[in-house]
From TrEMBL:
It comes from Blautia acetigignens. The keyword DNA-binding applies. The keyword Aminoacyl-tRNA synthetase does not apply. Keywords: DNA-binding, Transcription, Transcription regulation. It comes from the Bacteria. This is AraC family transcriptional regulator. Residues 182-280 form the HTH araC/xylS-type domain. Pfam families: Cupin_2 (PF07883), HTH_18 (PF12833).
């Protein structure tokens, strides 16, 4: 299977992740991948194309598509676009699971091919997602409350208007193929600061070391140790960017043995030392202040 698992970490202090699509400049292609989170792409300007299980779904401004948990998809953005992406952890919907951690949503983009089924009106959902991004970006006084109010409106509409109440057995079985690894990676994200070992994880989830190792290589296209390092680095990067913690403290707080180990991994991944990266951020902030 030629697809990769995508690691998704919510925005700091929030139960979800929201951002502008990284392919906004056009001429962008994202190969087949999957993730546990539910994902919504709301196109504000331009257009892009989704491929879900090799079926094509073109989207234009004003349209959106919902990507379900464990659903293999790829994206092609031929031209400039402005698209808001909202990623919601699967556990946010656990009260509405139909079976085996399974829940499925539809959208007008999917239903457009089925003339016998009435598609939900996307305007409300698109409005709340766009507003959610605006409020999060502006972060004016009281933004936390407004953000969560908009977010719960999104969850309400998804459960009320977009949730499919019947699940085909074949769909559930397909989802189970990736669900086992999803549970493991979720545990790793919740305990990444601890001393996690492949053997301990295998025992915890009832697998042999060799089987769990093969599972990571087959479905995540990465080995266990490298995946754990990715999680730690993602959180450490965020703290380096948004806090005044020392580099040594960031290293220890995020599961690295020491600051030297963290610095080496950071330079390997980003091509710059953590100290130089932080200095670059400080210089950029000073430059912006000079122009305001």
């Amino acid at each position: 299977m030629e697809f990769q698992h995508e690691l998704i970490i919510p925005n700091e202090g929030l139960p979800f992740k929201i951002f502008l699509f990284e392919g906004g400049q056009g001429h962008y292609e994202r190969e087949k991948h999957w993730h546990t989170s539910i994902e919504i792409f709301a196109v504000l300007k331009g257009r892009l194309t989704f491929f879900l299980n090799d079926e094509e779904y073109p989207l234009e401004a004003g349209e959106l598509i919902i990507i379900n948990s464990n659903e293999i998809h790829s994206i092609y953005a031929p031209e400039k676009n402005e698209t808001v992406v909202l990623q919601i952890p699967l556990k946010q919907f656990e009260k509405y699971f139909t079976a085996q951690r399974f829940i499925r949503f539809t959208s007008a983009a999917r239903l457009a091919k089925d003339k016998n089924t009435k598609a939900p009106d996307n305007r409300k959902l698109a409005f709340f997602i766009e507003e959610l991004h605006k409020v999060y970006q502006a972060r004016e006084e009281g933004w936390e409350y407004r953000t969560m109010a908009l977010y719960y409106n999104v969850l309400y509409l998804m459960v009320k208007d977009y949730r499919e109440t019947k699940a085909e057995q074949a769909e559930i079985q397909d989802s189970r193929r990736l669900d086992a690894l999803s549970k493991i990676t979720t545990y790793m994200r919740e305990h990444y600061t601890e001393d996690l070992k492949l053997s301990d994880m295998a025992a915890l989830f009832g697998y042999s070391d060799a089987y769990l190792s093969r599972m990571f290589k087959k479905y995540a296209k990465i080995n266990f140790k490298a995946y754990l390092q990715e999680i730690r680095m993602s959180y450490a990067y965020r703290e380096l960017s948004n806090t005044e913690k020392t580099i040594s403290q960031i290293a220890l707080d995020n599961g690295f043995a020491n600051s030297r180990a963290f610095s080496g991994e950071f330079q390997k991944k980003y091509g710059i030392l953590p100290s130089d990266f932080r200095q670059k951020l400080a210089d950029n902030k000073r430059s912006k202040k000079c122009y305001t």
